[in-house]
Each structure stands twice: as structure tokens, then as C-alpha cells.
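Reopening this ticket.

The earlier resolution said the output was attached, but the attachment link was broken on my side. Pasting everything inline this time so it's all in one place.
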Amino acid sequence: MLGTKPEGEGEASGKPVQAVPQVVELPRMVYPQPKVLTPSRTDVLVLTPWLAPIIWEGTFNIDILNEQFRLQNVTIGLTVFAIKKYVVFLKLFLETAEEHFMVGHRVNYYIFTDRPADVPRVPLREGRRAVVLEVPAARRWQDISMRRMQVISSHCEQRFLREVDFLVCLDVDMRFRDHVGVEILAPLFGVLHPGFYGATREAFTYERRPQSQAYIPRDQGDFYYLGGFFGGSVPEVRRLTEACHQAMATDRANGIEAVWHDESHLNRYLLDHKPSKVLSPEYLWDEALLGRPAIMRKLRFMAVPKNHQEIRNP
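Inline output:
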């Protein structure tokens, strides 16, 4: 935050004026003292080799974080694509988001759909609004998934840069089951895939064909990130989505499609541009498929049971 300068200073001399830093003072809060010799978690990795925190339950104090972000007066944008039959998931998604997502903060829900008349009216808290944006459908679900990168990138320019400070990009066939708040916010973040958080890099389902722009050799890779939950500041999300879109366009011109489509390109991007925060699998989990290991103290964002074949076909 920039400070003010004395009247007339700078313009006359032509010299740049150094901003006076302002100290943000938190209200007096009472909370447990952090203990240097007592780590918050010893059962999981909480810091990457590039010093980005990995967010698990027990590693943050949400009261402190909420106050910091309120003082910054942030607005969070959430993008979600409800194309074709996927519009049926919107009601539960929005209802549970209102209960658990960024409670106490301003939120814009950006709903991309080819069926705007079918978007349900869900009561929203004060300071939160839903924006329905019509987009065309595509024949294949893979094309719908990959087109998200292009659409998000273009809307960063058209409106997101003016309207929100952070973007959270999510899959719609999900429900919130517990708190998902400002602890996730950072310039660039990704989420550990629930199926691979304990696997070696050789087992990751990266794109392994060198002809693809998403190619990652077997001796490279940090984590496997899922495509259904990523985000960051609007400029960083714009850079990510534009880079992935351009990489997919190059692949298409070369007659190749990455094994896991936009998720493959997301993993290539996050290998080259390390995220400033990594979210644990608490932030996207499938309990029916994976059960509930002891390390998962909270399950925050959950897959909704569905017949994939039925929902993806016309």
C-alpha cells in the first residue's frame, strides 16, 4: 500500500518520490503462541523445497488470516463451468459454497454455461453475487474441459482484472463439506491430486510423449496437481491459462492431444512456474473412491457421486 507524499514534492524536481510504507495494524487478538520447537504437523510435508507452504488442517490460524485479508479488502472470484448436463450440479455446488467458501468475504461466482435459463437461483449472502456468462458447448467433454483455459484467459482481460483480486477455478460436479477460505489465497496455487499425493514421480500420469507441449520426462516433476482446483491472483491466472491455451493450440496443430488434456498442461506449467502455495488433498477428495486416511483431518471439497458416462454423453 502506497503512502502519501508532501504537496508539490517530486513533480517540480522530476525526481521519483519514494513511497512511505504504511504499517497494517491488526486488532488485538488472543490466540495460541506459535512454538518454534513444536511443528504444526509431523505426519505430512508442510513446506516444498522452494519454500511454498502446503496447506493442511492444523497448519494455519484462520482468525489471523481472515483479519489480514479483510484489511486488504479483497474480492474473490470463483469460476465454474456448467456445460450441457453438468448444469444439474450447480444448485448443490452453490448452496454448499455459500455455507463454506470464503465466508465473511466478498465473492463473485462466475458461472459459464450454455444453458443460462437452467441456472438455479440460490440465495446469496451479503457482498456475494452470481454472474452468468453464456458460452457455447462442444461436442466432446474433452474439448469442453480444454476450452476452459481459453475462456478464463479471455475473461481475465475482459472483466476479472477490474472486478476481483483473486480467482479460484473449480470443477462444478463437487460439493463443499467444510471450510475453504482465505488460507488458500496466494499469487499462484495448485492442489495435490488425491490419487497421487503419496506416489513417486515415475508413477504420475504426466504426458510422456516428447511431441506434446505438456511433456514431462520420468526423472522430473514435483507433485501431480489436479485440474479441477487451481487459482491465484488475476494476473497470474491469466498467465497460466493463456500459456496452457497456447500449448494446447500448438499440440492441436501438431496432431496430438495430451493424455489428460488441460490437466496435463497445468502440470507442465506448474513444474516450470512453481506455485507459491500448494493445497493438500483435503481440498479435493473422493471419499467413495479413497476412503478417509488418518492424515485427512478435514475433507473440504468433495466429489459428487455420478455416472460419468451418462453425464458426459448428450
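Reporter confirms the inline version is readable. The chain has a mean pLDDT of 91. Helices lie at 62-72, 90-100, 141-163, 234-253, 261-272, 287-290, 308-312.
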